[in-house]
From TrEMBL:
Pfam family, one: MS_channel_2nd
Keyword vocabulary terms for this entry: Membrane, Transmembrane, Transmembrane helix
Originating organism: Candidatus Mycolicibacterium alkanivorans
Compartments (UniProt record): Membrane
Protein name as annotated: Mechanosensitive ion channel family protein
Listed SUPFAM superfamilies: cAMP-binding domain-like, Sm-like ribonucleoproteins
Stretches assigned to the Cyclic nucleotide-binding domain: 328-453
Lineage per the UniProt record: Bacteria, Bacillati, Actinomycetota, Actinomycetes, Mycobacteriales
TM segment ranges: 12-35, 47-65, 77-98, 118-137
Length: 466
């Protein structure tokens, strides 16, 4: 018994037998805590628990407990595996603490993955060289010399390709743009869909522009997506010299305000720039909306200019003629219970107007000044929920009417926009009041319509709230 206690291997064996289970228990609990917290250190601790601690115990048993020579092949193999796992764990911990835990916007977060991969490869190579040199006694100096010479020769032979790769890596490190940003370069304008070591891929809408990073790094370009929300478009329109500038600018601002692509917290601005030209500045949510916003604005301007008797591009186009008004009155006569004398009287005051697709005919919360009767086209009725989004209430077809609360001077609960080109007959409030005073039945029908439409809007809003 005394000889056993005097043996050094006995204490090493007892230490491994007790220390290994205790260490595994402690590391297991620590790992579970890190996993529950979704910590980035969970993986390094897992390597420590599953591989490094058992290998360290095995190495101690071989060298200290069983007193196997350190020069033995079995010890060298275990020591090699142990050293490699230590290297992997250190790299994993370094990556987790330095790069994965880096704050947003820091240089550590912006560092391209390829730089981290190359550095990891170099550190692994150096670590393996030290392991083989220390454990196996290998001479690695000659190997590094040969690799250095080969690298120099290969770099000289591929200097153009390597230059593009270096330019790409520097571009990735600086990160003047990200995937999804819109760029305006000397040769292309579009959205960035891919960035690799050699080139940047830009979707121009009509094809894929592949631009070498060396060219992009040496040129001046504009990132239309940065800063976020700052992108604007300029739309130029031309009116006649006889059109009042203030009236034209007010109409253009009103149309720009209705664009669904507009940035809601930046008001559009329209100014006269001289001669007969006007320039409208509209802030957009994204450069991707440029073409759609410009097209919709110009299309709406065509309709609005004719409704307000303005001369877009100097054109004279009177749509609300006497013949069209009389034809529209005959179409809605049954709805309004009109007789021949009513048709003759209203023909002098009613107007016919057209609206383009997606154009707003009625805003929620406004008090209408006239009633509008659909002669052609379809109109979508919408309601605004608490979060500001729109939900559909219904669709109006030919013969239906809008602005019924013009008679009661109450705000409307629902908005309305055209689903396609819409033609309406408009009768102002004063003449509608004269008409319904002569026709009590019509007044009752309009009153019921007001209540029914209000109840329908409230029902849809209640369902959306649930």
């Amino acid at each position: 018994m005394t000889a056993l206690l005097d043996s050094s291997w006995f204490y090493w064996a007892i230490g491994v037998a007790v220390g290994l289970p205790v260490g595994l228990i402690l590391l297991t609990e620590w790992q579970h805590v890190l996993v529950r917290r979704q910590s980035i250190l969970a993986r390094p601790v897992s390597l420590l628990r599953n591989y490094l601690l058992p290998l360290a115990a095995l190495l101690l048993l071989l060298v200290k407990a069983t007193e196997v020579s350190a020069e033995a092949t079995s010890v060298r193999v275990v020591a090699t595996v142990f050293g490699f796992v230590v290297l992997v764990m250190l790299l994993s911990g370094l990556n987790a603490t330095v790069f994965q835990g880096a704050p947003e916007g820091s240089w550590r977060r912006r560092l391209p993955t390829i730089f981290i991969d190359v550095a990891r490869f170099v550190l692994i190579a150096l670590g393996l060289a030290m392991i083989f040199s220390y454990i196996w006694g290998a001479n690695v100096g000659g190997l590094f010399t040969a690799l250095g010479i080969s690298t120099v020769v290969l770099g000289l032979a591929l200097q153009n390709s390597v230059g593009q790769i270096i330019s790409g890596l520097l571009l990735l490190f600086e990160q003047p743009f990200q995937i999804g940003d819109w760029l305006d370069t000397p040769t292309a304008r579009g959205r960035v869909v891919e960035v690799n070591w050699r080139a940047t891929h830009i979707d121009t809408g009509s094809g894929m522009q592949v631009m070498p990073n060396s060219v992009l790094a040496g040129a001046s370009f504009t990132n239309l997506s940065q800063p976020a929300g700052a992108h604007k478009i300029l739309i130029t329109t031309t009116f006649s010299l006889v059109d009042p500038p203030d009236v034209v600018c007010a109409m253009l601002n009103r149309l720009a305000n209705m664009l669904p692509y507009r940035k809601s917290d930046v008001a559009p601005v329209s100014v006269a720039v001289g001669g007969s030209e006007y320039r409208t500045t509209v802030a957009l949510q994204s450069p991707a909306d440029d073409a759609a916003a410009r097209s919709m604005f110009l299309r709406w301007t065509w309709y609005a200019a004719r409704r307000e008797a303005l001369h877009l591009d100097g054109a004279v186009d009177e749509f609300s003629t006497r013949d069209r008004v009389e034809k529209a009155l005959r179409a809605v006569a049954p709805k309004l219970r009109l007789v021949h004398t009513d048709l003759q009287e209203l023909a002098a005051y009613a107007t016919v107007a057209r609206f383009g697709a997606d154009e707003i005919l009625q805003h929620s919360g406004e008090v209408p000044t006239a009633m509008a009767f659909l002669v052609a086209g379809r109109v979508r009725i919408t309601a605004t929920v608490d979060d500001g989004s729109l939900i559909s209430v219904g669709t109006l077809e030919e013969g239906a009417f809008l602005g019924q609360t013009a008679l009661t001077r109450q705000p409307v609960l629902a908005g309305a926009y055209a689903l396609d080109e819409v033609t309406v007959l408009q009768i102002d409030r004063a003449h509608m009041e004269e008409l319904v005073l002569r026709k009590p039945v019509l007044l009752q029908e309009i009153g019921r319509a007001i209540e029914d439409r209000r109840a329908n809007v409230l029902r849809v809003l209640a369902m959306a709230g649930d």
